[in-house]
Amino acid sequence: MNQDQLKQLVAQAAADYVAANAPEGCVLGVGTGSTANLFIDALAPIKSRFVGAVASSEASRVRLEGLGIRVLDLNEVTEIPIYVDGADEVDPGLNAIKGGGAALTREKIVAAVAREFVCIADASKKVGVLGKFPLPVEVIPMAREHVARELRRLGGDPRWREGVVTDNGNVILDVHGLSITDPAALESTIDHITGVVTSGLFARRGVDLLLISSPSGVERLS
Ligand code: 5RP
């Protein structure tokens, strides 16, 4: 099986999970990226089970609406029982790096509201220690060089993702060269740098349920 087929497999498993576990008439949280896109497509046949979705990006909003799924503003919603999204890396403690698609801040906000964060990934995303995938950090544009200097002091090699502007009007620094053995501590440290909006580390609020696909099927880890 190739990676696209593995993404399809886990996206369908997530839709099945939603069909079995989401309360009738609820609002779902929906993430961003190629795996999340396949999940959105897999939601179409069960869309009558929920009233709508909160999207973690404009791209996902457009895709959901294209399938006739209502997209709500998060400020209109008090409860999200399940949030489904992909990840760039996940470690054995269910800490994740996200933000390869530059949607990390909205993803973190939706995850903060959600009761359960269901992460969907193919087996290539499972790692022993986070950091091989460069850690995305969303930064206020005028603070870019200041934040880059601070990230260098932490031992990272930040590189500006030139040409990318987030849905919030900010820029992304991708931090190479990290070996993240204490994800929650690093998340707090980076989030406290003035000018940082958020980092792509999901550790203080990590993954609740990981669905991970391999040629032998979809494994559930929690
Ligand atoms: C977007 C994300 C994505 O979930 C992450 O990059 C994984 O993407 P894909 O499913 O395309 O591999 O965090 O900001």
UniProtKB/TrEMBL annotation:
Reactions the enzyme catalyzes: aldehydo-D-ribose 5-phosphate = D-ribulose 5-phosphate
Alphabetized UniProt keyword annotations: Isomerase
Keyword Isomerase included in the entry's annotation: yes
Binding site for substrate: 32-35, 85-88, 98-101, 125
Active site: 107 (proton acceptor)
GO molecular function, one term: ribose-5-phosphate isomerase activity
EC numbers on record: 5.3.1.6
InterPro entries linked to this entry: NagB/RpiA_transferase-like, Ribose5P_isomerase_typA_subgr, Ribose5P_isomerase_type_A
Biochemical pathway: Carbohydrate degradation; pentose phosphate pathway; D-ribose 5-phosphate from D-ribulose 5-phosphate (non-oxidative stage): step 1/1
Pfam families: Rib_5-P_isom_A (PF06026)
Function: Catalyzes the reversible conversion of ribose-5-phosphate to ribulose 5-phosphate.
PANTHER family cross-referenced by the UniProt entry: RIBOSE-5-PHOSPHATE ISOMERASE
Quaternary structure and partners: Homodimer.
Family: Belongs to the ribose 5-phosphate isomerase family.
Name listed for the protein in its UniProt record: Ribose-5-phosphate isomerase A
Source organism of the structure: Niveibacterium microcysteis
Gene this protein is translated from: rpiA
